[in-house]
Fold cysteine-S-conjugate beta-lyase.
Amino acid sequence: MTNGHRYDFDRIIDRRGTSSLKWDQLETLFGGEDVLPLFVADMDFEAPREVVEAIVERAKRGVYGYTIRTEGYYEAVTGWLERRHGWAIEREWLVSSPGVVPALAAAIHAFTEPGDGVILQSPVYYPFYDVIRANGRTIVDNPLRIEDGVYRIDFDLLEEQAKSAKLMLLCSPHNPGGRVWTADELKRIGDICLRHGVIVVSDEIHHDLVFAPHKHVPFASLGPEYAERSITCIAPSKTFNLAGLQAAAAIVPGAELRRAFLRTARLGLSIHMDSYFGVTGMETSYRYGEPWLEQLLVYLRENRDALVAFFEDRLPELRVMTPEATYLAWVDCRAISDDPAELKKLMYREARVAFSEGSVFGKQGAGWLRINFGCPRAVLLEALERFAAAARRRLDAR
């Protein structure tokens, strides 16, 4: 394995023709091959060199059979959580999954019945809605409120809703708003859910992508009472750009919950095999990826700051909710329009860019756009220039 490598995040990598969801269906999704895609949450950066080398070596073996997790895998994952997040977990708490969303689905099947209420906090990562509705459960929306330019939780409403709900899907750090929930906020959520018997399923997939001075607090690390009634979902996919490897984990400290979760995941949903390359990617990134991540965080912060400064200078009528985490910026474009169709027309036809249109994250998101700044700065600035030119024409015509 290599060490001390300096990564060039400014390097533009041509991803066309690689079966890329982001780059290989521009005509189908947005009506033109010249549209710049900054929508789906994967980055345009090469993974850590050590991960690439390990996967190449594994590919050379030529036999891609059923795969198990090794002792090295467990050591890498538990070591990462303790080193980066101060959270000591037991290896038996780890339950593998091909992704975080399948783990959410397994939790919903394991701990709720059709018709039961599942709490989410809109606007939020849109598969939360899908995984509740598609499984015949009822969405209980605890909308986030904007205070001082950031999202805050309505704890009074949450207290009432928890009286009749069975499960809560928590997005921590928050997508699309980029909030890093504080220990006090998480504890208040936990106390409400404990009082009313609500199990917390915490999607912490963005936990490594946090900008100082903010610090991610794993929900289950708050104390054994919270850990026993929670499931935490993690993956290296956002951190190290490994989404295509299909590797994630659910961390289930409570023995009773773990038995029920395993029974549902393995027997009910047939989630019981690991990805041949996913195990290698997960172990290698958590074992060797820290220097790469430290360099990435510096670059992402600079991209974030460049984006915020761009809007302040060129489009001050629009407001950026400056993310405390993630590589996703949530931008209030209601000064232009709160009509999703109009914002799509502005992006795809007039600006030739593709950001995520906000209403997919819930009705509160209408009039907002989510911009993925996990890309080379030249690409980001080109997309912002295109958008600014089109948006300025709209704003000046008002």
